[in-house]
Specification:
By secondary structure, the chain is of the alpha/beta class. It contains five helices and seven strands. It has one domain: P-loop containing nucleotide triphosphate hydrolases (Rossmann fold, 3-Layer(aba) Sandwich), CATH 3.40.50.300.
Length: 194
Amino acid sequence: MINYSDITFVTSVFSPSQLPVAEYPEIAFAGRSNVGKSSLINRLVGRKGLVKVSSKPGKTRSLNYFLVDQSLYLVDLPGYGYAKVPKKMKEEWLGLITTYLETREVLCCVVVIIDMRHSLKEQDRQLIDWLRDKGIPSLPVYTKKDKLKKNQQNRQVAGLDAALNIRPSERVLFSSKTGEGKENLIAALDRFFP
């Protein structure tokens, strides 16, 4: 069992040439800007300020590598969506992310973080469809579970499952605020390791 609390920041990667040696399995975290990616990673590893949380979209501008338990990398990808950054910078991010996802042989899974309060956003659908098309394993994680009452949750989750054409066993419900879903997320991630 991986000890997620044994974690250290390793490096920020701004170009494919800076990627670390491919010696450990990697799990990447992707999501729209301000979907709560940093909060989710912090909750997963049990460290409040490890991954910087920002209210300003577009804060993460690199692939940020964290070594877990001396045996696994968590890779925090730049958020996609409405970040107010220059077009050239967005294109550079997209190039870096695409190159990483398509060529990284140790990539086991992309965790796609989706805000369960809303219907499926087109960018989330496009990413998951693209990952499927490329044969890259993904795990949708519906966040902000604590923000909805149970009946609202059920309705939203059913809509997201239908929109993504997945079964409940193929995704995780999560709350960064309460930690609910953390054990389910860890169990789901374990299935992707070689």
